[in-house]
Amino acid sequence: MKSKIILLIFLLLFPSSLMATELPIRGIARGESKIKVGDNAPLITPELEKAHKEGKVIALQLGYPSHCPWCDRMERYINEIMKETNNFDNRAIFIQTQIEHAKFIPPPDDGIKLKEAYGVEGQPWLFIIDKKGIVRFVYKIFVANNVFKNNIEELLKE
Hints:
The protein contains 6 helices and 4 strands. It is α+β, with helices and mostly antiparallel strands. The longest helix is centred in the middle third of the chain and has 16 residues, at 69-84. The protein is globular and about 65 Å long. The model is unreliable at 15-24 (pLDDT under 50).
């Protein structure tokens, strides 16, 4: 009886849009992004704007590591590469943003804006943006660490 009451309270407190059955599958980026290689990146958050003004190469991960196993794996090795290279001598930056509900944790406003601007579904997505603000690489679900590092190094040589 007690568990039924708890379930009833839970169902009354949380709208159906937050129910687990309606949440995206963890670690499954779906479809195609609205933003393609060669497009101007929507640099619509203060952190992205600042990085662009500083002329940095931007690695933007749209995904939530504590909820998505692929997001977690990528975030861990990208952070390790960024630490080992001192953010590629401070010429690159890694920005990670939650864009989907994680259990019952809604994404921040910036995450919602980025999800809409980049036109993505599911997670993770990785957009690598050059110093001019152009999307040069788009990865859905996963990118290997050596490919990531080579992409950044290639853009820094330009």
